[in-house]
Amino acid sequence: MDILLVAGLWLDGSAWDEVVPELEALGHRPVPITLPGQGDGSTSATLDDQVAAVIDAVDAAPGKVLVVGHSAASSLAWLAADARPQRVAKVALVGGFPSDDGSEYADFFETKDGVMPFPGWGPFEGADSVDLDEEAKQRIAAAAIPVPEQVSKGVVRLRDERRYDVPVVLVCPEYTPAQAKELLDAGQLPELSRVKHLEYADIDSGHWPMFTKPAELARILAAATTES
Residue ranges of the AB hydrolase-1 domain (predicted)? Predict the structure, then answer.
């Protein structure tokens, strides 16, 4: 199965470089997506541009796909399911949850000169980055791509309730499945509360398992293609 890989803020398609060969060895065709404004040299990209890039990748696949969204890009994966509910076999959300309709995509940090730069590691101290050594942190920060403000402050628009028929697996890195369920039970994940087929997968990592646990992450994603 084609597995579309969409990394979160400040990352391009190369974030999946260590996951790709692992998925290929498991018999799948991974498709890392470099989002407009996050690796193509554009600073004027919008959220709609990024959504269109993911939908285009869904449309280009020969059959149904697994769409993987990491962190903030969990919303992009969910928007793809909303746009193409009959083409998306399943959505995997890695360390993130889909925003609800009408909310801003990822207005989390200060913007400057029309972009939201990587804020440094301060906001990610603790469980998020516990498995990253200093060398890895420096490498990730050096490669971080400022996110266009029109992306981070873009408004999420969901239109097709058939998205709730698309199975979802929550891959839980810096938090546990039990903690994710607590958020769900507390009403903090309104989109996921209506999903008809919701699974959980635990991975013992920080927020960026594609860098620290690529083989394990690949196994979880491969398993998601066969589970209902």
Answer: 3-219
Q: How many CB atoms lie within 10 A of CB 109?
A: 16
Q: Tokens 């746009």 belong to which residue?
A: 83
- The 10s digit of each residue's pLDDT in 48-85 is 999 999 999 999 999 999 999 999 999 999 999 999 99
In angstroms, the CA 221 to CA 209 distance is 12
User: Do 87 and 23 touch, CB atoms closer than 8 A?
Assistant: no
> Is 27 within 8 Å of 1 (Cβ atoms)?
no
In the chain, the domains with their CATH numbers are 2-224 (3.40.50.1820)
Q: Is the dihedral of CA 123, 126, 128, 129 positive or negative?
A: positive
**Model confidence over 125-140: pLDDT tens digits?**
999 999 999 999 999 9
Alpha carbon 203 to its chain's center: 15
Backbone angles phi, psi at 134, to 5 degrees: -65, -35
Cα(128)–Cα(121) distance, rounded to whole angstroms? 10
Q: Which runs of E-coded beta strand occur in the chain?
A: 2-6, 29-33, 65-70, 88-94, 115-116, 147-148, 168-172, 198-202
